[in-house]
Design a protein that fits this description.
The protein is of the alpha/beta class. It has 29 helices and 32 strands. The strands form nine sheets. Strands 6, 7, 8, 9, 10, 11, 12, 13, 14 and 15 form a ten-stranded mixed sheet that branches. Helix 18 links the parallel strand 23 and strand 24. The longest helix is centred in the last third of the chain and has 30 residues. The chain is elongated. The structure holds zinc ion. Zinc ion binds next to helix 29.
Length: 938
């Protein structure tokens, strides 16, 4: 009776589908996690474990997520999940930055569309609209982050606009007020006349802009050099509107200057024959050309020592600008362009300000908040600094102040929000001093004690802190936490009284920062002070102060968290943003950084390395990738990238991640299929296992050590690469391949098959949890397929410590030799298959020629099994002339003959013991099948 032999082969069986269908499957898994109260349950299971706090840098709540957000949050999630997997209590509380100009700007845009004037809307009403806008986007982004598989306390995130947060931010400002490092100063700040506010460095973009340029005449008033009597010093500037604010000029001590007589001029020139002018020799030709001077004579050297005691008149002297203009040495003056002499308006430039202060030069206020020149300025009152630039130049020319004029296109600062050009404007602002209480030194020391990944971040942030000016924290806007300070009108001194601050904090806690605007000042000042004697500050605090204080309102004094954080992680642009402001805030109030380590990642570019933009049409959105491929593909992309550098993404790159994914999924699927029906009764002791199976256990210990080390160094790329290599090379292409025959055909009760299934069980129980932090959805799907339980998750487990008796270094070395030899054999058989000599490796009988060390490595092993042939020979000898040699070792070679015998119809091995009957079987298969027959008969 012919048996259906196919029925007797133990083919793998599993419900885990080959096709992932992630876009549909992932939301089902999210729903399951939701039902089991995933995050609370995980926290409960880690209670009492060492904490790991990755403090979330708050994204801004004003739009859908882009691919950069996805990178950022997935990377954070990888870290949190790996830390949780090795046993830590990783309490991740996501947060949002809710105050600030971009949201105000959106609301104002809506007003403009409705033809509403913002200045007529009560401030509390305006703030409420901003609050609603931020709330909406917090909800949208929260959904989108969760869809990426990011785990955390989404039910209770932190918001900078929460009343409790606003109260803490006010309390933190109070600390700087009380210790004396908060002061009101007058300084030029980058100012947007459109938004009517000072901007931070991070809010500025540079674009090309064409400006009117002028060469202006400064008559010499007095000088120790007699030849300068009646001469004019010439300066060049790209900002004619700063001329009313001029209070000095600067020269370079290394530059050679000369006195020039104008002999002839072009027709339309502003220069006159007989003019006697001073400028740098290097620039004489370019000045002559630009100002239409057709002939001039150099009459004298003008030594720089002379300048020190030379006093100039303003170009508009006698017309309302009659102050003296000193000449000051400055090492930043060059002869790259201009005249080698620089005009100094201390209210309109950082360098000008510093130079002016150092020499006791006054800092006038000349430009109002709306960017117009102030009323006290003769000839220019009411003119717009930027728009009326040519008109201002016209006026200067008309008044005889100019030698020449022109235009220049240069890189110019603009508001990143309104794209309006900015000006440096001298305004009263609130500053935190870098020096008065040693903030700079404290911050630099804190940086030296912080670990940076990658290390270059340390020097980057250090040089920024070392060179930065005082921290300007005031903004003349409405949507934010007010600087809760009262200034004594008579003395100009801020009121420093902790009781007042405490009343403010208490009010904010209950009613939010709106209380500052909605309450009479008496509420905060109490009975002790006369409100009429105090000015209530209405500036709000820079949003970087808000986010710089998140450590104070989320981490500190919170039993669920810890302070300082183990890690801050953001894009490398946050060296000047969040890492920076958090460091200053914490060092100024607590004397150290709020973090032990800082990790930075790069930016996301397209496949060609270009920035993504709507106009290039190369934008990849996380929403699209999820719809097309699933979040696990994006997660692989992050884990598989060098995230310290900029990352690229596009169709081809995503396809590569899909390929990686497929191999990992197939590994899960193969294990699940092979383990069908596996029970503990089948388990076998390590000591009783064949060498190959013990080698796999040894490999598990090696992979375990490698990935734990990589996690300690936050090298998740290494984690992914090691696991992918293990699945692909060690399992699929080697162990699974060799053990296929055992698994499909061997007696289920045999030591070989039991050992193989025991090992596969161990592999599954290691591999799925190892990959779970990366493939958070697919690992859960595989886990639930094997251990279905709606109350359990693969993510709840802590990675086990692998048994010490799995480690066997000698076995590792031995199998390295065997695998090297096997490569030569499979290469030779592959050649025959390509040539059509054999169809399957089971038709081949290879003979391996190798030195003793290699042949001995095969001691006790069935070489044919390892080569996946029906038979094989090993010879300790030099390979014959017709052998195929190992690529880098001529002492190892292979010849291949055809296997002798007939094909077993069950296992397809060709063996001498098999006859040529239609359903002939080898001895092993015959035994297995008859045992099955007996079992069926029983
Ligand atoms: Zn057989």
């Amino acid at each position: 009776m012919a048996k259906d032999l196919k029925q007797t082969v133990f083919l793998p069986k599993t419900d885990f589908p080959m096709r992932a269908g992630l876009p549909k499957k992932e939301p089902e898994i999210l729903a399951m996690w939701n039902d089991m109260g995933f995050f609370d349950e995980l926290r409960a299971r880690r209670q009492g474990h060492e904490k790991f706090i990755l403090h979330d840098g708050p994204p801004y709540a004003n739009g859908n997520l882009h691919i950069g957000h996805a990178l950022n949050k997935i990377l954070k999630d990888l870290i949190n999940r790996f830390q949780s997997a090795i046993g830590k209590d990783a309490n991740y509380v996501p947060g949002w930055d809710c105050h600030g100009l971009p949201i105000e700007w959106k609301i104002e845009e809506q007003y403009r569309k409705k033809k509403r004037n913002k200045d007529e809307v009560p401030i509390v009403e305006f703030r409420n609209e901003c609050r609603d806008f931020a709330s909406h986007w917090v909800d949208v982004q929260s959904e989108e982050f969760q869809r990426l598989g990011v785990m955390g306390n989404w039910a209770d995130p932190y918001l900078t606009m929460a009343y409790s947060s606003e109260a803490v931010i006010a309390r933190e400002i109070g600390k700087f007020l009380m210790n004396g490092s908060l002061f009101r100063g007058s300084k030029p700040v980058m100012w947007s006349a459109v938004e009517k506010t000072a901007l931070a460095e991070a809010e500025i973009e540079y674009f090309d802009r064409t400006s009117t340029t002028i060469y202006a005449r400064f008559p010499v008033k007095s000088s120790p050099m007699a030849e300068l009597d009646g001469a004019q010093i010439i300066i060049w500037t790209t900002t004619p509107w700063t001329m009313p604010g001029n209070r000095a000029t600067a020269y370079g001590e290394e530059i050679n200057y000369g006195l020039y007589h104008v002999d002839a001029v072009a027709e339309d020139s502003l220069a006159k024959v007989g003019d006697r002018l001073v400028f740098a020799d290097d620039l004489a030709d370019s000045i002559a050309e630009a100002c239409g001077i057709s002939a001039m004579t150099r009459s004298n050297d003008v030594p720089v020592e002379v300048f020190k005691d030379t006093i100039l008149k303003h170009p508009l002297n006698g017309q309302g600008y009659d102050h003296d203009v000193p000449m000051l040495p400055a090492d930043y003056v060059t002869t790259d362009q201009g005249t080698g002499i620089v005009h100094i308006a201390p209210g309109h430039g950082a360098e000008d300000y510093v130079l002016g202060i150092a020499h006791g030069v006054p800092v006038p206020e000349t430009v109002a908040a709306d960017g117009r020149l102030m009323d006290h300025l003769p000839h220019f009152a009411g003119m717009s600094a930027l728009k009326d630039n040519p008109a201002i130049a016209d006026k200067l020319a008309e008044l005889g102040a100019l030698l020449g004029r022109g235009q220049v296109t240069h890189s110019y600062p603009h508001s990143w929000r309104s794209h309006a050009p900015l000006i440096f404007r001298n305004t009263p602002q609130w500053f935190i001093s870098m020096e008065s209480h040693g903030l700079r030194d404290t911050a630099l020391k804190a940086l030296s004690e912080t670990v940076f990944y990658p290390p270059v971040g340390q020097s980057r942030l250090t040089s920024m802190i070392a060179g930065r000016p005082d921290w300007c924290i005031s903004r003349q806007r409405a949507w934010g936490v007010p600087i809760p300070v009262f200034v004594h009108k008579a003395s100009g001194e801020p009121l420093r009284d902790q009781a007042v601050i405490d009343r403010v904090v208490e009010a904010f806690e209950k009613e939010g920062a709106d209380a500052w605007f909605a309450s009479p000042p008496e509420r905060f000042l109490g009975d002790q002070y006369d409100a009429s004697e105090y000015e209530q500050v209405t500036d709000i605090v820079d949003v970087w102060f808000d986010s710089g204080s998140t450590h104070a309102f989320l981490l500190e004094g919170n039993n669920d968290m810890s302070w300082p954080a183990d890690m801050y992680l953001e894009g490398s642009d946050q060296h000047r943003g969040w890492f920076h402001s958090s460091l200053l805030e914490s060092c100024g109030t607590r004397g150290r950084a709020p973090y032990d380590s800082v990790l930075t990642h790069g930016f996301v570019l397209d496949e060609q390395g270009r920035k993504m933009s709507k106009s290039l049409g190369n934008t990849v959105t996380p929403q699209d990738v999820i719809k097309e491929n699933g979040a696990d593909i994006l997660r692989i992309w992050v884990a598989n990238s060098d995230y310290y550098d900029d990352l690229r993404i596009g169709k081809e790159i995503l396809q590569r991640q899909v390929d990686h994914y497929r191999r990992l999924r197939n590994t899960f699927r193969y294990l699940l299929g092979a383990l069908d029906g596996f029970s503990d009764d089948e388990r076998i002791a390590v000591a009783d296992m064949p060498s190959l199976d013990r080698w796999v256990l040894h490999r598990l210990t090696e992979v375990d050590a490698t990935i734990r080390k990589a996690i300690a160094g936050h090298d998740y790329h290494q984690v992914f690469t090691s696991l992918h290599h293990f699945c692909n090379s060690d399992l699929s292409a080697f162990y699974f391949d060799i053990r296929k025959d055992t698994l499909y055909c061997a007696d289920p009760a045999s030591v070989e098959r039991r050992a193989c299934r025991t090992v596969m069980d161990e592999v599954f129980n290691c591999l799925v949890p190892w990959l779970a932090p990366i493939l958070c959805f697919t690992a859960e799907e595989a886990w639930q397929t094997r251990y279905p339980n709606p109350k359990e998750s693969v993510h709840f487990g802590v990675w086990r410590d692998l048994p010490a008796d799995w480690v066997d270094e000698n076995l590792g070395l031995r199998w390295m030799r065997v695998r090297d030899a096997r490569l030569v054999v499979t290469g030779a058989i592959e050649k025959l298959r390509a040539d059509g000599v054999v169809k399957s490796s089971l038709q081949a009988h290879p003979t391996l020629y190798a030195p003793a060390a290699v042949i001995e490595a095969f001691d006790g092993l069935d070489a044919a099994d390892i080569f996946i042939t029906s038979s094989a020979s090993l010879k300790q000898a030099t390979p014959p002339a017709d052998a195929r040699l190992a690529e880098d070792d001529e002492t190892i070679g292979v010849t291949v003959a055809l296997a002798e015998g007939h094909k077993c119809q069950r296992c397809w091995k060709i063996l001498p013991e098999v006859d040529d009957a239609e359903d002939a079987m080898c001895q092993r298969c015959d035994d297995v099948v008859s045992t099955m027959g007996d079992a069926a008969a029983e």
